[in-house]
Predict the 3D structure of the following.
Amino acid sequence: MSTSVDCDVAFENVTISKPTEKSPFTIGDGAKVRLYLYGNSSLTAADGYSAVELGVNGASLTVSDGDGTLTALGGVAGCGICV
């Protein structure tokens, strides 16, 4: 993945549940993401995965202004947000 990604992402009533063999939301190495939440969103990972995974080389996630909520549920042996 690119190490120069700097972006805004908005979730509005997003539901992603147990995608096959991957995390519902992955932020690659070095990427900077600002997440805006509107409504109620949820990410649920399959067993062995986290709901949100951040790359190991300087990836960052900032939850910014918005009036919503995010529920992040990891699968068995996974976590909600893995940093």
User: Anything to note?
Assistant: The chain has one domain: 6-82.
